[in-house]
Amino acid sequence: MSANEDHDMLSEEERKQRENEEREREKAEQEALPYKWTQELGEVDISVPVPKGTRGKDLTVVIAKKKLSVTLKGQEPILSGELCKEIKVEDSTWTIQDQQVVLIHLEKLNQQSWWENVLTHHPKIDTRKIEPENSKLSDLDLETRGMVEKMMFDNQQKQMGKPTSDELKKLEALKRFQAQHPELDFSNAKIS
């Protein structure tokens, strides 16, 4: 085995180890937050533990286009800050469950993007690692599902500096056209 092959195998191992470490770090950061959150493409759900026996009137909850705060009356806010993206305030709600958890439902304004975090000053998650099933991809009709998959593919391609599906289609069409017209010079052609 050459040193090169050895290095390649090692880098694969290292890459896996680094991904695991990042996943663990991300998990620890998220668990340290004073709330838990999940998301789908169109919405974010947050659960905030509060002392048992808490009632709605003990709380001040502010849900604004780019701001969220939950405060127990007479105390420091449990969470407060700027939302990472805008929401539809009129479609967002909160409720208290079993007098011990505040459930907040936020409708995203842009229903085609993943959030990296809830509040801008909190640790981010790597949205490239979001599994499509989180968005209940299987529940979508074929057209929407195709659109979401294309969007996720294009996002990944962009982050890797590779062409998006539309750009790939243009390149394919150009290749076919070039093959049909060998007499034309495309060396200075710009694709837009």
Automatic annotation (TrEMBL):
UniProt keywords (A-Z) are: Cytoplasm
* Protein's name according to its UniProt entry: Nuclear movement protein nudC
Q: Where can this protein be found? A: Cytoplasm
Q: Cite the residue spans of the region called Disordered.
A: 1-34
Show the Gene3D superfamilies listed in the entry.
Answer: 2.60.40.790
Which GO terms of the molecular function aspect are on file? unfolded protein binding
Bias type Basic and acidic residues, positions: 1-30
Tell me which residues make up the CS domain: 30-119
Q: Which organism is it from?
A: Coprinellus micaceus (Glistening ink-cap mushroom)
**Annotated signal peptide:** none
What role does this protein play?
Required for nuclear movement. May interact between microtubules and nuclei and/or may be involved in the generation of force used to move nuclei during interphase.
* Pfam families cross-referenced by the UniProt entry: CS
Record's superkingdom? Eukaryota
What is one Gene Ontology biological process annotated in the Swiss-Prot or TrEMBL record?
Answer: protein folding
Q: Which PROSITE patterns match?
A: CS
